[in-house]
Design goal:
- By secondary structure, this protein is mainly α.
- The chain has a domain at 28-93.
- It is 47% helix and 0% strand.
- It has six helices and no strands.
- It has helices at residues 4-7, 32-42, 45-55, 57-64, 72-82, 90-93.
- The longest helix has 11 residues, at 32-42.
- The termini are far apart.
């Protein structure tokens, strides 16, 4: 039986997620934080499903906890899915030193 992880290719993700890098050089294990961060910040639900299958919820949350740039909706979503407190996330407790005028 073939492993589901081996069937997922980086080209299956939305084109806009990895526009700034050479996708052929992305390594699922070495670049996991980068991949997870881009999907959480800019991805569609289909992209979320791909990383969920590949990494699993525990690994995604473990990496997301240290990402300081996540928005409030993403933090709420992950906290609810992982059944953890929002204040565990670095982005929840760290605010931007120069906040934008409109904070949506």
């Amino acid at each position: 039986m073939m492993n589901v992880k081996s069937k997922i290719a980086i080209d299956q993700f939305s084109k806009h997620l990895f526009w700034d890098v050479d996708k052929s050089k992305l390594d699922w294990e070495q670049n996991d934080r980068y991949i997870i961060k881009n999907v959480l910040q800019y991805g569609f639900y289909q992209d979320w499903q791909l990383i969920l299958v590949y990494y699993g919820l525990d690994h995604i949350i473990k990496k997301a906890i240290s990402i300081k740039e996540l928005d409030a909706k993403t933090v709420s979503f992950l906290a609810t899915k992982g059944k953890i407190s929002k204040d565990k996330f670095a982005c929840y407790s760290t605010k931007a030193s120069n906040p934008t005028h409109w904070n949506f």
